[in-house]
Amino acid sequence: MIQVGENIAGWETLGVGAGGDSGTPGWYGEQFGLCRLRFKSKNETAYTRIDIYDAYWVLINASAPDGYSRIPFDVVDDAHYNEPPVHTLTVESTPIDGINFTIGATTYTTNSSVSLAEGPYTVNMPSVWTVGPDQYEFVEWEDASTNPVRVISLTSNMTITATYELYVLRPISIYTDKYGYSAGDTMYLGLNLANPLDNPITVCVAIWLERPVGPIKIILHAHAVTLPAGFTYSNPNFKSFILPSIPSGVYTWHAALLNPTTHATVAEDTAEWQFT
Fold first, then answer.
1. pLDDT, the chain, mean
2. What pLDDT does 2 receive?
3. Domains 86-166 and 172-275 equal at CATH topology level
4. Given this structure, which CATH class describes domain 86-166?
5. Which of 142, 207, 143, 203 is nearest to 175 (CA)?
6. Residue 35 reports pLDDT greater than 50
């Protein structure tokens, strides 16, 4: 808190004033202090807004009890002590660039830089990115984190790199439209199926959800499905869900092709996502 006119030893003093005019009563041509502010920052890196209020014009008036007249005015000046420093954040992607990502509500493109005030930020990369007929999947950051959502502390110029890989045709794969969800969000669950063989195959198709607590939840168990030779299926909106309030934590979708006789796993894929 700023105390106006208080004499505290060791506090810095800031004088505020304006040039005088010989034609103005009570002014003598030199700089005349309107008020004196004494303040000390407890944290020299704090970003504090200072408001000046209850300010007065002060005029010399010999007939006043203390020799001054005070005329209040309504102008309030704002100042900042220690503005937050600005740093450059560069977000790169490999082996492709031009991937859209978000910081807060703003969308940017990889292999470009943005100037931001010092502080924490959340960088959200897509799990899957499509370029023409090719589909790329997020693999990891340069620090080996495999979560496409990354929280950084920007205290200096910084470069982070997201690695993607070209999707290779797999018998089955499952994915979500993003990593983080909250109550009321819509989740879009994508599914790819393929038979890369030259002959048809018969399999069971199973999809289930592994929860942080409680039993698994099965949403599909199709018996004896025949996939023709060269069959492909790709649907980024295979299922959609409006999420209710559920326990926080990491959830995992599983999708598998099973042998219809022995129920041995032929192929399996997983997709993690987080609820907060």
1. 79
2. 38
3. yes
4. mainly beta
5. 207
6. no
Total-model pTM: 0.46
Q: What does the alpha-carbon distance between residue 59 and residue 71 come to, in Å, rounded to a whole number?
A: 8
How does DSSP assign 208-253, residue by residue? EEE-SSS--EEEEEEEEEEEPTT-EEEEEEEEEEE--S---EEEEE
Q: Where residue 77 falls among pLDDT bands split at 50, 70, 90?
A: very low
Strand residue runs (E) in 142-199 = 149-154, 158-166, 172-176, 180-181, 186-194
- Which CATH number among 3.90.550.60, 1.20.1260.10, 2.60.40.10, 2.40.10.340 corresponds to the domain 172-275? 2.60.40.10
- Where do the domains of the chain lie? 3-81, 86-166, 172-275
Amino acid identity, position 120: P
Inter-residue contact 99 to 160 (CB < 8 Å) = no
Name the residue with higher pLDDT: 139 or 19: 139
Q: Indicate the DSSP class of residue 181.
A: E
Q: What is the pLDDT of residue 15?
A: 42
